[in-house]
Amino acid sequence: MMLTDSCKGTTVLIPMLVACLAALAAVLVRSRADARGGVRQRPWRLTADALVGLGIWTTHGSSLLLSVPEAGHDLPRHVLLNALSLLLCLLAALLCLKPARSRTGSWTTIYGRPPALGLGVTAAHLLSLKAAGFQLDITAYEGTVMLVINLLAGFVICGALLHAGRSWMQSRAHEAGMIALLALAMNALHYGSMIPVMTTLQLAPISLHEVLANQWLDALASFVALTALSGALAGATLDARVHRHRSHLVDSLTAANLELNRLAHHDPLTHLPNHSLFEEKLRLAIERARRDASPLIILLIDLDGFKAINKAFGQRQGDQLLIHVAEQIQSVVPQRHSLARIGGDEFVVLLDLESTGEVTRLGGHILSAISMPLQIENHAVSLTASMGIAQYPRDGATPQALIEHATMAMYHAKSGEQAYAFFEPSMNALARDHLLLLNDLRQALPRQQLVLHYQPIMRAPDGPMAAAEVLIRWQHPQHGLLLPEAFIADAERAGLIVDIGNWVIDAACRQLRQWLDRGISHMRLAINVSAIQLHYDRLVETLQTAVARHGVEPSRLTLEFTESVAMKDPERSLAILQRLHRLGFRISLDDFGTGYSSLLYLKQLPATELKIDRSFVTEIDQRAHDRTIVSAIIALARQLQMEIVAEGVETPAQKQWLCDLGCTFLQGYLLGVPVPADLLLAEGHPPAGDAVRASLNGDAPAWPAPHAATTPGSPDSVPPDHAR
Questions:
Q1: Are 530 and 310 in contact (CB under 8 A)?
Q2: Rounded to an integer, what distance in angstroms lies between the CA atom of residue 673 and that of residue 704?
Q3: Domain chopping of the chain, boundaries
Q4: What range(s) does the GGDEF domain occupy (predicted)?
Q5: Angstrom distance (rounded) from CA 112 to CA 97
């Protein structure tokens, strides 16, 4: 038998392409089965097995289209034998590939069916050859070779599907290997079955027209089989895409649900557990502590003055500060303890420590970590915090009770200027009153309950009045007139201090305008500016707006800054003060002598006035050391061409010493007490010295202690202890 080169290529290529198509379809359908679970796998696996059988039959039949049998054949017999051949291939695949589908059964079942597959396909292919009109005179040698090849191919097909079922989709290379093995095994079954007729097979170049004319039925059957294989391949591919899309949607929904659950139980800024998750953890910890009789302690931490810093620097910088604080606390709290953020600037730690010494030691580490400075807009910002401590079961048996009592202890620590405090039952009433007062304070500005008093600043030695210092009071509807020490610290912690300070500036300018309208043109007002206000981005704009709104010259306002405030961030403070000075505002350096007293920065500050702190004035008539310090301050101010104001003048002896040392302005209870604006310049207003002397003799009620307009502990004059 002679074969042309083109015929040889066609004989090899067509079966290989058909086998590859069938193998690809079977493997993809099998993958769709593995992608499903339970009973839904069965139809897909049966389909995959059927595709293997169909692929084996079509691979063999497509090659026979090129054959030219030695004798003709009748149509009925041809159709019957081919139908039996197809049925036998399908049955062999469905029955013998079951172990590869189930991967269960006895040793005989698993390893006996691959040879059965090879024998069944061999019989099916021999039927196809018989249908094509070939005479099957099989020698012993040919039969042995055919059976060996087909049996090995059966093992390869079963093994490939078994292996694919166990580790499917590990990689693209793995997938391609399974398809190649199946395709080669299908071709091996074909060529193994062709061995008995190789000597009688005649192949010649043949056109498509000749195939359709002479073997149109076989061509139609092959076309239908190829269409079925292609349809199965397309269906499996489409199903895979739909499944991937559905899986993507499911994964997206699952991720979204997980994220929603995380957001519901975690703080989105610091990623710490939030209030609800912490309460649940605390509830479980209480149950465990009750069962095991183990200790349980919570530390509630509140940042001091954070709201004011947040308002001064902006929310973005405030968020960075909170993240910094969370990281600092995490750096010192062991992982076995739980940390959560339960409020805007409140953190809580759940501890299982037994010793109060261990608790206070860890609390000290936490507070030290929080106080580490952070750079915000090229400025070092340091925070302090207050801590309340509650213990189970002494201070409460529920999460709500423990958190509430820790909060009370925290407020007690703040009010007592302590770093931390353990809860005591007596704190209940104090904390309740404090919270009520804080709630009232939030409404003080909207309800117009804040008022200004003015204390005269007199030209030495006996007047006239040159200016007045602005002092704030709170006219509380239940508690009466409250001094700043009762509410300013809370205003700072609640983030209200900037709003209160802005109101003071506007109210002072409005009062100056009223005096100017009455023809009183010599008055100037001094306003204390706190550290938070100084570093508030809109301080300069607020001052400009206020003087413009009321038509007041900036030179009528003296802005008082303490040394500590000015030196906290020297470069930034200097830039702001110089800008204010250029706009015409007067700058006074308050409490001079009690802070840094840095001559390097003093000569750079655009201050026009120094205020001598009352601590040097109180015993100036008794202590030569104080007189020496005051004399040095006055000499320094004169050299720098600054005015000198002494505050806290309460006795004639103090006044005389200050005048003798060269002080130019005096302020204190001896010269004038803080009064409302309508009394400051009222005709016939009693001299302040007479009022103080009457108070000392018990003939008049004590004057309320004045205080700074914006900051607790600000350096305005206060009366002697017996006059408060």
A1: no
A2: 9
A3: 5-234, 275-439, 443-723
A4: 294-425
A5: 11
**78 or 148: which leads in pLDDT:** 148
Report the interhelical angle of 75-96 vs 107-131 (nearest 10°): 170
CATH of segment(s) 275-439: 3.30.70.270
The string of DSSP letters for 680-712 reads: HS-TTPPPHHHHHHHHHTTSSPPPPPP--SSST
Q: What homologous superfamily does CATH list for 443-723?
A: EAL domain (3.20.20.450)
Sign of CA dihedral 126, 130, 134, 137: positive
- Letter for the amino acid at 710? T
* Radius of gyration, alpha carbons of the chain: 48
Tokens of 362: 């860890």
The bridge status of strand 374-376 relative to strand 379-381 is: antiparallel
Per DSSP, 720 falls in state -
CA 160 vs CA 53, 58, 239, 630, 715: distances in Å: 15, 20, 23, 101, 91
What's the number of CA atoms in the CB half-sphere (13 Å) around residue 48? Answer: 30
Prior bond of 461 cis (ω within 30°):
yes
**275-439 and 443-723 agree in CATH topology:** no
Least confident of 254-268, 460-474, 477-491: 254-268
pLDDT at 327 over 80: yes
Q: Is the pLDDT of residue 217 over 70?
A: no
Tell me the two tokens of residue 169.
Answer: 């989709």
> What tens digit of pLDDT does each residue of 407-444 get?
888 888 887 667 888 988 877 776 677 778 888 998 99
Q: 372 by DSSP, 3-state: which?
A: coil
Residue among 619, 625, 632 at smallest CA distance from 662: 632
For the record, the structure tokens of 187 come out as 């071709």
Higher-scoring residue by pLDDT: 554, 57: 554
Per-residue pLDDT band for 450 (boundaries 50, 70, 90) equals very high
Which residues fall within 8 angstroms of residue 5, CB to CB, at 6 or more apart? none
Closest CA to 532 of 717, 379, 706: 379
Give the side-chain half-sphere CA count within 13 A for 125.
31
pLDDT tens-place string over residues 632-684: 888 888 888 889 999 989 999 999 999 999 899 999 988 889 999 989 887 54
Confidence of residue 718 (pLDDT cuts 50, 70, 90): very low
The length of the chain in residues reads: 724
Mean pLDDT of 282-306: 90
Helices (H), 71-139: 75-96, 98-102, 107-131
CA distance 302 to 230: 70
Spatial neighbors of 472 by CB under 8 A, at least 6 apart, are 450, 451, 452, 453, 484, 488, 500, 504, 707, 708, 709, 710
What is the CB neighbour count within 10 angstroms for residue 334?
A: 9
pLDDT at 212 over 80: no
Backbone angle region of 417, left / alpha / beta, with phi > 0 → left and psi within -120 to 50 → alpha: left
Q: Which two tokens stand for residue 629?
A: 């310090």
Q: What is the mean pLDDT of the chain?
A: 77
Going by their DSSP bridges, the two strands 525-528 and 465-476 should be labelled as parallel
CA separation for the pair 234, 242 (Å, rounded)? 12
Tokens of 368: 């030290």
129, 55, 39: which is closest to 89 by C-alpha? 55
Start-to-end C-alpha separation, the chain: 131
* Cα separations in angstroms, 395 against 410, 425, 426, 429: 14, 8, 12, 15
